[in-house]
Amino acid sequence: MFTYQFSHAWIDFRNLEDRENINWFDNSIKATVANREYCIDNSEKFKTFGKDSWGLTACVGPNGYSGGYGAKPSLSDVDKENE
Fold first, then answer.
1. Which residues pair with 59 in a beta bridge?
2. H helices within the chain, ranges in order?
């Protein structure tokens, strides 16, 4: 979530689009909703996931620190590590 939300602390992206017509405010909302849905959908698989426990980002996990932890499509194989 850090990747999608940190820059919003300094820049108001509402109503701004880049050269490719991407609205990064809307993109961040979509990423946040997808992250929460992933945690809800996988709450049976991971005991720390749920409707009130989400916001995956780089962190320390079962195999140490990883920048790949997060909702799909993260770079992590965390699903395979915890099966």
1. 66
2. 2-5, 24-41, 78-81
**Could you tell me the two tokens for 74?**
């993260």
Give CA–CA dist 16/30, Å, rounded.
16
* Residue 35 binned pLDDT confidence (cut-offs 50, 70, 90): confident
- Residue % of the chain over a pLDDT of 70: 78
Residue 47 has pLDDT above 60, yes or no: yes
DSSP state of 9: G
CA distances in angstroms from 29 to 1, 7, 8, 50, 59, listed in the order given: 10, 13, 11, 18, 21
What residues pair up with 66 in beta bridges, in sequence order? 59
